[in-house]
Amino acid sequence: MAILVDGQSFLQEAEDIPYSEYPFELMLWGEWKTDHPDGLVLTEIFWQ
Predict the structure, then answer these.
(1) What residue spans define the domains of the chain?
(2) Residues 17 and 3: beta-carbon distance below 8 Å
(3) Distance of CA 21 to CAs 11, 15, 24, 31, Å?
(4) For residues 36 and 17, what is the distance between their CA atoms, to the nearest angstrom?
C-alpha cells in the first residue's frame, strides 16, 4: 500500500511519511464490509 502526500508517493511502511501517528484497528475484510456496507476501497497504486 502507498499514500500520496503533496505529490510524493510513500510506501505505508516508510519511516519518513510527513504525518503524525494515527490510531487504527486491524479487522477482517468481512467485518469491515459489514460495518461499512457503502464504503469504497482503492485497489490501485498510482506511482509517479
Answers:
(1) 2-35
(2) yes
(3) 15, 11, 9, 24
(4) 27
CA–CA distance, 34 with 14 (Å, rounded to integer): 30
User: Phi and psi for 24 in degrees, rounded to 5?
Assistant: -145, 165
Q: Which amino acid is located at 6 in the chain?
A: D
Amino acid at residue number 22:
Y
Alpha helices in the chain (DSSP H): 29-35
The cell 510506501 sits on which residue? 11
pLDDT digits 0-9 by tens, 1-48: 888 888 889 988 888 888 877 888 999 999 999 999 999 887 787 766
The structure's pTM equals 0.42
